[in-house]
Amino acid sequence: MKTCSALALLLLSGALYGAQNLQDLIEEIDFAGNTPVLKDGGGFEIDNIKSDWEWPTTFSFPKGGLKTGAFYRVALDYDVKFVNWQGGNFLFCEGPGGVDDRPAFVSFASKPEKGRVELTFALPESDKQYRVMVTSKGGTQIAVSGLTMESVPIPEHAKWFFEKDAFAGMRFAPSNGAFFDFNKIDALLPREKYFPMVDKFGQYKYTEWKGKVKDKSDLKERLAAEKAFNAKAPDIKNRDQYGGLAGSSKNKKGTGRFALDKVGGKWFLRDPEGNLFWSMGVDCVGGYEFTPISARENYFEEIPEGEYRRKENWGMFFYAGWEYESVSFMKRNIDLKYGKGASGKYGKISAPRMKKWGFNTYGAWSDHSVLRENNIPYTLIIGSQWVRPLDSKKELYGYWRPMGDFFAEEFEAGTEKIARDNADLIKSKYCVGVFVDNEMPWQGKEGLTAEGILTCPADQPAKIAFSKFLKEKYADIAKLNAAWGASFADWNAFLAERDFIPQTEAGKGDLLALERKYYERYFEVCKNAVKKVSPDVLYMGCRFAGFGWVNPLCMEVAAEQCDAVSANFYMDSLEGMELPDSLKDKPVIVGEFHFGSMDRGNFWSGLQHSKTGGERAEKFKKYMESAIKHPNIVGAHWFQWFDQSATGRFDGENAAIGIVDVCDTPDYDMVNAARDVSQKMYEMRMGK
Q1: Residues 6 or more apart from 91 whose CB is under 8 A from it?
Q2: Beta-strand relationship, 431-436 and 565-568
C-alpha cells in the first residue's frame, strides 16, 4: 500500500481547530494503493476505476487515526470526471468495525460534476482508531482540493450524548453530526433532564420548525390552512379521471387496463381510456408507521393507548429477535385532526390532495384500504413466498433477507396463493401494475450465485435442479468431469461435493447457464402468479436496489420476463443515466427516490441529503424533471407520504422524507414543487 505524506500540508487549506498544528491530526495521506497526481493549488487527482476492489478507497486520513472525544467537521471540494456506480461517491468516517462502526457518511456526485461536500460527526473517547475516507463502488475519477477540518472537544457534561448506547433503536440519533450543531454543544442538557425528548404528538422537543404542532387546536388550524391553500390552487389542467393526458389517445382505443406504448421514441403508459400516462407517484400513502417503545419508554412525553399500540415480533438491529410494543403517533394524530375513526378512512383524505398536488399514482406499500377507494391509480406490491435460504459455504450478499432457494417446492404454490389473495386489487382498472418483492439480494457479480449453489448441501433444491440440468446436457458423469476438470464418482457425488468450483472455460460457461436458470425460475414464477390472476395486468418486476447492485445476467432475464423493469434510484438526478444493454429499449419505472430534510426534527436526512425543506423541494423538481425526460422511464415514485418517526421504525429508519409530517401537515415547498412539475409533465415528456 502506497502512502504520500508530502501531500499533508498541500491538502488542508482551511481552518483546523483543537490541535496545536496540522501535524497533530494529519500525519500522512493514505491512498490505498493508488498513485495520486498532484495539481496546482494543493489538490490531487485519483483514478481507481480499474481497481480490483469492489469499494476502492480513493483516500483516507489521517494515517494515525483521529483523536477521539471530539466533534469534527470535514469538508472538501470535488471535481468528479467519472463514477462507476449510480450511488456516487461517499465521504464517511469509519472505525475498525467497518460498516458497523461508521458514525457518519454522506453521498455526493452520482454523476460527473463539481461541488463541495461536508461531513460532521462525533467521536466519543475510546481506544478505537477512526479515519475519514472517500470511496465509490467500482471506483471513480475524482479531483480533490480545499480539504478542511475543524474539531472541538466534547465537554464533560455532554459526553453522555455521544456515547454509542445513549440512544437505542434509531438509524441516526440526535447526535448525528448532520443534525446536531456543535456550536450549541455547551447548551446540551444532562441525561436526567434531556428525557423525554419526544412530545405527545411524536415530534422532537428541542427543535422548532414552521408548522410544528404545539396543541390539539393547532391541528384544526393546519386543516383550515390547507383547505384555503387547496381552494386557491387551480386544478391541474388537461387530465382525465386517471391523471392521464386528456385527449391524447388519438387512434389508440383504451383497453380498460393500463398498458405500455412507445411514442416518439419514448416509452409511455396508456391509461384505461387509452390516453398517455406518466406515473408521478408517492409510496406508503395511508401506511401508518409504528415506532417501537419497549426499553425506551422514557423517550416519550406521552404514549397513545388502545388501538394506537400493538405488539411486534419482527424487527431489525436493536429489536431483532424479541417481541416488543410499538405505537403510531401518525394514526392517533389523524384521528385528533379529522375526527375519531378518520385514520381508517384515509383514502378519502388523501385522494383530493393527490389530485390537487399533481400526483397521479399511489406507490408501493400504500394501504390497501386507500387503494380500494378506486379513485387514484396505484402500483401494487406483493411478496413472493418466503423460502429456505441457500445454505452456501460461499459468502453471498443478503440485503433485507438472505438469498432464497426459488427451486423449493413451496415457492410456486405459495407465490400464486399470495397473488390470488390480492386478486381484487390486481384486477382493478386502477391497478397500473404489480411489483413482486423489493430490493432482492441479487449478487453484483455474474456466476457468484451459481458458485454459491454448488457449495450447498445435497438436499438443497436448487442444487438438485442444477444436477438435473447438467444430466440433460452431459448424460454421463464422465463427460461432465471432462468438461469441468472434475473427478465426481457419480451424480450423487456431485450433489455431495461442497468445495469444488470449475475453472475450465466450459465449466464457467455452464455456471452462467445454470445461474440463468435460477433467475428464470424466480421471474417466471412471479410473472405467472400475477398473470394467472389477471392476464392483462402489467408485471413490473422486483424493484431492484438500483442497477449498480445487480449483475447484468439477472437484469437480462428480468428484461425478458417483465413488462416493465423496476428499480429504486437514490441519486441526485437521472440526467444522462445510461441503462444496461439489456434495458436499452425497455420501459423502466422508478419505485423509490427521496431527499431528506434536516430541519424538521428528524435526525437522519435519508439516503439523499438536503439541509432544508426548500432545498429538498428543488432537488425533487430536478430529479423528477430528469426522470420525465428520460426516454425509458415511465414513472417515478417518491418515498414516502409521511415523515418517518423521529425515533425510528422497525429497522430504525427515522428520516424527514414525507410530503406530510407526523401530524399530517403538508410540506408546502414540496407541494408547490410537485404541482409545478405536474403542470408541465406531459409537455416535458413530449419535448415541448
Answers
A1: 74, 76, 105, 106, 108, 117, 119, 132, 133, 134
A2: unpaired
303 CB contacts (<8 Å, ≥6 apart)? 293, 297, 309, 327
pLDDT at 646: 97
In CATH terms, 3-154 corresponds, of 2.60.120.260, 3.40.50.720, 3.40.50.2300, 1.10.760.10, to: 2.60.120.260
What integer pLDDT is reported at residue 22 of this predicted model? Answer: 32
Write down the domain spans for the chain: 3-154, 409-533
**Torsion sign, CA atoms 130, 136, 137, 140:** negative
* Residue 9 half-sphere exposure toward CB, CA atoms < 13 A: 3
CB neighbours of 417 closer than 8 A, spacing ≥ 6? 385
Q: Report the share of the chain in percent with pLDDT over 70.
A: 93
Q: How far apart are CA 686 and CA 380, in angstroms?
A: 27
Q: Mean pLDDT for the chain?
A: 91
Segments of the chain scoring below 50 in pLDDT = 1-28, 32-33, 35, 38
| Distance from C-alpha of 227 to C-alpha of 337, rounded to nearest angstrom | 13
Query: How confident is the model at residue 58, as a pLDDT?
Result: 77
CA distance 598 to 485: 58
**CA diameter of the chain:** 81
Closest by CA position to 121, among listed 166, 169, 68, 158: 68
Q: How far apart are CA 163 and CA 181, in angstroms?
A: 17
* pLDDT at 42 (0 to 100): 56
pLDDT of residue 14: 32
Query: Do the Cβ atoms of 254 and 244 come closer than 8 Å?
Result: no
Amino acid residing at 107: S
Nine cell digits for residue 60: 483516507
pTM, two decimals, is 0.92
Three-state SS at 34: coil
In this prediction, residue 37 carries a pLDDT of: 53
Q: Which of 638, 641, 678 is nearest to 235 (CA)?
A: 678
The sign of the dihedral angle between the CA atoms of 115, 75, 602, 310 is positive
CA distances (Å), origin 575, targets 108, 168, 458, 684:
15, 39, 48, 14
- Partners of 268 in beta bridges: 261
